[in-house]
Structure formats: structure tokens, C-alpha cells
Amino acid sequence: MTVHSSHGGVAIGTLLQRGEPDAAPLTLVPPLGLRDPALPLRGRASGLRELTDLLDCGSDGRPHIVHGMGGCGKTSLALELAQTATERGVRVWWVDARQTALLEAGLNAVARQVGATEADLRAGVAADTLWRSLAADDRPWLLVVDNADDPHELDGPGSLSAGTGWVRRHTAPHGHVVITSRDGTRGTWGATAVLHPLDTLSDADGARVLLDHSGGRAGGAAEAESLARRLGGLPLALTLAGSYLSRATEIPEAFRDADTLTTFNAYREALDQGLDLVDSEQVIAQTWRFSLDLLSRRGKPLARPLLGLLATFADAPLPYTLLLHPPTLAATGVLPGTDGPALWDLLQALSGVGLVRLPAGAVRDFGVPLARVHPLIRDAVPAPADLPTAVRLLHRAVLDPGSGVPEDEDHWPQWQTLLPHALHLAHRAATAELPTEVVETALSCAQLAVRYLSARTLYEAARDESLRLLPRYEAALGPGHPGTLNTRHHLAHLLHAQGELEAARAEFEAVLAAKREALGADHESTLAGRHELGRVLHDLGDQHRARIELQEALAGEERVLGAANRYTVNTRHILARVLYDLGDTAAAQREFRAVYALRRRMFGAEHRETLATRYNLALILYDSGELPRTREELRTVLTAQTQRLGPEHRATLNTRYALACVCRGLGETATARDEFEAVLVTQRRVLGEGHPDTLATAHSLGHLGEASDDVPTMPFMTGRRGGLRWA
User: Fold this and answer.
1) Rounded to an integer, what distance in angstroms lies between the CA atom of residue 415 and that of residue 168?
2) pLDDT class of 361 with cuts at 50, 70, 90
3) CA–CA distance, 154 with 169 (Å, rounded to integer)
4) Which value, in Å, is the radius of gyration of the alpha carbons in the chain?
């Protein structure tokens, strides 16, 4: 059913303290694609050697802080270290601290990868669990926390300087922690931290950077040293200046404007005639202006507004083929007359002068190409494109058929790239003076992004973002607005997913009453509320009331949406579960088979929803005693779920649990025990100790040696199917 949302009559903040792990979609792999082997890291040999020497010896557990001004190359140094560590077989984790919402999720993910249990992570001692788990790992490892420019974000529940924060001295024999930050204050990091100051480059090393990036076509070493001195030795400014001169010198002399800068001396003289450079931000501001002026002279004046538009989105990789829609850009007036080829030419031009990075490998990793603007360049853009334009582009992207709906796993890579931008623009729109329709559009995009998190069974992240959205909806649009009601509904949906069944029932009943009053009984969102209430009633064992709610929802959906609509079919699927648990086996089988045929036609045989129906049909086989056929069916479902959803998705784990039950029924006790134990370990880590799925697995494992008929049922094991849970 549509993931709508709800709240009313119950204290959501209290009810949602228990939830799923902080498992927002992220990667812990170092972004080595940002390195260019053809452009060596200049002037950092000594600092890099200090860090790489750590890899050759045991660890004393002290964190190492690489600090310096913005643009001085801290991340570049850390990437070189990560590359060396990778080549030596050291396990490397890379956590980006720029997006604070994902910082703790990244550190929690590191803890899970070294065997931390979800019970400790959820008990308010996640930082302690992280370091206890890392200390127990005697393999060589390197943890890089990049861009920790606000070190207080690393305090966590304790204190960074006191050694009780997210980063602290550890006891792992071969583990090393490196943090990059603009803050090099001893008091910030504590007495045990090792500080590695990163200064600007010498004139000679700065000259080498200029010569590398300009291709050696803008002058000799002496002239390069003079310009490097004028740029203050700041690596980012040197890179931008060198890239500018590389592009400028490619222009045939006969085609150059008189004021095109083509030499180191000319660039330095232009700086001398401009503002007096006193800090890194001014250096960056001047150098990017020169680069944009060059592009304007080369017939690309729209590069300037395009850079401003890119700076409006989140500080995250930007899926530009999804967001930068040429007709929409032309309609808004930001890039008038720009078609697809012209837009690509502008992006390539910005990349050519170093203002935008187009990292290799993005299509392989995320399914779409990505662009990245350096944070200092983002900060230096004085007048980013107006926020309504960015919101309009995002709205078009999330509604585009190519992005699919958030629940479709085929489109999850695209939604992963859209997620940070949807959340960022919603926050900016809700706190800016904008027309109501712009705020509503931005919030609706964020709501779709939360649905993606929920579909991935990343319940804790979805809950956190829903709790942020709810007051924004209420403040901007009022308590009876459909978006407010949908957010409230989704919070109730998360209660259900997290096993808080009674709380979810109360929430769904409250929000359903609000929807009837505000939207009417036949509104799609009201019908969605009846569907979700029927689901939770079924899981609570109230099958008769569940049937009433679901039959009423189905009748309304057939009238409003049509019999072949996805959400109508979803309601038929849940109603079939209820019919079976009420004892009407024949009707339930007919419904399941009809739904399976519809879903195969609509989505294909391996879609998540199609597999869910095939799984439920296998449970009926199990209940009828046809265990060999049941195993065959469940193995087919499990293979597809593992490939498409991942081995730790809740649906995949449920199928694996069901297979263990089949093995138990076939007398294969050893195999069943191995499977139950493996599922239980993952459920404890992913879902938590108290989740109903985890409790069911622990229960079955504890009674493995008993005859099936003698195994007592758990309170939530309603209906037949030998205690197996429906999909």
C-alpha cells in the first residue's frame, strides 16, 4: 500500500524511541576515484610518510588529526594514505563527516562490520560498542573520518576531548584512526590525539602543482613560483588556476580575446589588480571568478548560473542526468535555450577548469553519473540559483518514470543519490521565506525519500526523517493538510514495522479518523489508512475486524483506483492472508494465485511484491505438509531476494527463516540449527533483540529438538502456517 503517514492522540516521540538501527544508505569505501595518478600529490611527502609509517608497526591507539585551512589538501592526503593501505591489504573504512545525519550511521555501520550486536547499539552505548568491537579485531585496519570540521559532532553521548566520544584512544593492536578537520585546537581533540598540521605549500611545490595542471604551457618554473606565492600556496587555488590556464592555452591564439590570461605572469598580474587576498575564501572566490570569466569569453556565459544552481543542492554527489532537466531549466529561465548537448558542454567546461568534478565509476556504483562541487567553491558562490528552481527540478526528477517509485528495488540506486538532496531542500525550503506551494513541493519530495528508506527496511533513518518532516508540515501547511496526515501515517507504519503493534493500531485509528474528516471516506489516502489498519489488526490476531477493514478498503479502491491498480492489488494480497487465517483456505488460495498472476504481469517474476506472493503460496504448501515442494519454492524466492534486495533485507531474512523451519520439518535438524543461528545473528544486528522477527527465530531455535506440535506459540504467532510469518 502507499506508504502514507500518521500521528494523533499518541506521543510519537516517546513511542518511537525503540526502532531499527541507524542504517542509512551509505558506503564505507574510500572514494579513490577522486585521485588522479597523473597528478601526483605535491609537497606532502613528509606528512604522508608519517602516516604510512603507522601502517608498518603496531598501534598505540591514539587518533591522528590532519588539520589545516579549507582547501589545503587534507582529503587528498587521506586518500593517498587510503590508497597505500588498500594496496597493503589493510581494511579501510571511510566515513564522511560533512553530512551529520549520516556520520553516526557510518560509525554504527563500521561497528556492525566488526561484529557489534544491535542490542548494544540500540541501548545508548553505540560509541562504546564501536571501540570494544574494533579492539577485539586483531586484523590491520584504518578508519578515516573525513571533513570533521565541526568536531563537536564527534562528541556523541560523551565528550571528544575527554576520550568518551565517537573518536577516542583505542586498544586495537593493528588499528589506526585518521581524522581530517579545519580545527587543530589541542583542547578540542584531547591530550591523547596526535596532531598533524597541514600548512600551505612552499613556492617550489606550489609551482609544481601549477605546472602539473597547466600542462607546462603557461610559463616556466620561476613564473610558476611567483604565481604560487601570490596564491598563498593554497592547493585548491593552485589547482583551479592551473586548470584555468590549461584551458586558456588550448584556445588558438587567433581566437583568444585580448584579456584572456594564458601565462602565470598574466594570471598573477590580474590578481594584483583585483582584491587583496587575505584568506582562503578570498583566494577561492578570485580564482573561480577568473575561471568563469574564461568560460564566458569562450562562449559559455551560462556556466556561471549553472554553478550557482549546483551549489543550491546538498553537499553530496549530484545525479545530474536526473536533476538537470534541460526543458525545465529552459522554462525557469535559469539556462534559457539550453538543450541536452549544450548542458553537457557546460558541465564538461566547468569540470575542465576544476570547478566541478565528474568522478569516474559513478554509473557503475549508482546507475547514474554524478557531479560534485568542492565545499569551498560552494561556499564562495555569492548568489546561488533561487531555491524554487532547485525544488522544481527535484520534483520533476522524483516523479519521472525513470526514477520509479521508492518501493521498487530496480530504482533504489537512483533514490540513494536523490535522498540527500530531497532532505536538504526540504530543510532549506521550510526555513526560508518562500511561497507555500514551493514549501509543499519540497516537503513532498522529502516524503518520497523517506518512503525509499522504509522500503529498504532502514526504519530508524526513516523514523528520524519523518519526525523532522512532521513539525515542518504542521507549521507550513497545518495539521489537516494531506502531507501532514501522510507523514503521521508513515510514523504509524514504522511503529508497525518495528513490532509496536498496539501503538501502531492506536495511531492508525487516530489518523484514519483525521483523514475521514479532512479528506473524505473515499480519498485514496483514507483508503490507504484502512488498508494499513487492516494489516496491523491481522498481525494482532483480530482477523474478523481486519477482514471488515480490508474489504471496505478494497471496495473503495476498486471504485477510485480501479481493479488493476497496484494498491488495490496490495489490499487483495493482505485480505488473502486474513481469509486463510480465518480458515477459508480455498478462497485464500484463489486470491493469492490471482494476485501472483497480476503482479507477474505488472512487475515481472522477480519483483519484490511478486516474490512476496510466491512466498505466501509456499507457506500454504508448508501448512499442507508438502515440505519438499515448499523447500523448492522458498529456495527460488530466496535466491531472487538475495540478489535484488540484499541478504540483510527483512524479507530475505524471513524467507531464510522459513527454509530453516522446512528443514526442521524434514528432520534435517543440523541444517535447521545452522540456518536459525545464522538468521538470528543477522536479525539481532539489523532488527534488534526485541523485534518480533528476532524473537520468533530465537524461540524456534530454543525449541528445535521438540516435535512441531509440541512447540509453544509466541503471542504474535497468529493463525496457522506453523508460526511462520506472512509476507
Assistant:
1) 34
2) low
3) 13
4) 29
Buried b (16+ CB within 10 A) or exposed e, 33-44: eebeeeeebbbb
Spatial CA neighbour of 674 closest among 641, 710, 701: 701
- Model confidence pLDDT, tens digit, residues 628-638: 999 999 999 99
* Model confidence pLDDT, tens digit, residues 124-137: 577 888 888 888 88
299: left (phi over 0), alpha (psi -120 to 50) or beta: left
Q: Of 713, 724, 717, 723, which Cα lies nearest the Cα of 539?
A: 717
Angle (CA) 686-18-545 rounded to 5° is 100
Helix axes 436-455, 459-477, angle to 10 degrees: 160
Phi and psi for 371 in degrees, rounded to 5? -125, 150
Nearest-angstrom CA–CA distance, 311 and 384: 6
In the DSSP assignment, the letter for residue 5 is B
State the cell numbers at 633.
519454492
Write down the pLDDT at residue 717.
37
Contact indicator for 413, 368 with CB cutoff of 8 Å? yes
pTM recorded for the entire structure: 0.71
Report the length, in residues, of the chain.
Answer: 727
- List the end-to-end C-alpha distance of the chain, in Å, as a whole number: 13
Other CB atoms within a 10 A radius of the CB of residue 11 amount to: 9
Report whether 275 contacts 390 (CB < 8 A).
Answer: no
The residue among 103, 118, 109, 106 whose CA lies nearest residue 148 is: 103
473-502: pLDDT as tens digits: 999 999 999 999 999 999 999 999 988 999
Coil/strand/helix, residue 197: strand
**What is the CB neighbour count within 10 angstroms for residue 508?**
28
Beta-bridge mates of residue 175: 141
- What is the rounded distance in angstroms from the CA atom of residue 122 to the CA atom of residue 441? 34
Decide which of 166 and 275 is more confident.
166
- Cβ pair 417, 372 in contact under 8 A: no
Region of 348 on the Ramachandran plot (φ > 0 left; ψ -120 to 50 alpha; else beta): alpha
The CA distance from 588 to 569, in Å, is: 14
Q: Distance between CA atoms of 171 and 192, rounded to whole angstroms?
A: 13
CB 469 within 8 A of CB 447: yes
**Which residues on neighbouring strands pair with residue 180, listed in sequence order?**
66
Give me the DSSP letters along 262-330.
Answer: -SHHHHHHHHHHS----SHHHHHHHHHHHHHHHHHHTT-TTHHHHHHHHHHS-SS-B-HHHH--HHHHH
Q: Of 500, 504, 359, which Cα lies nearest the Cα of 36?
A: 359
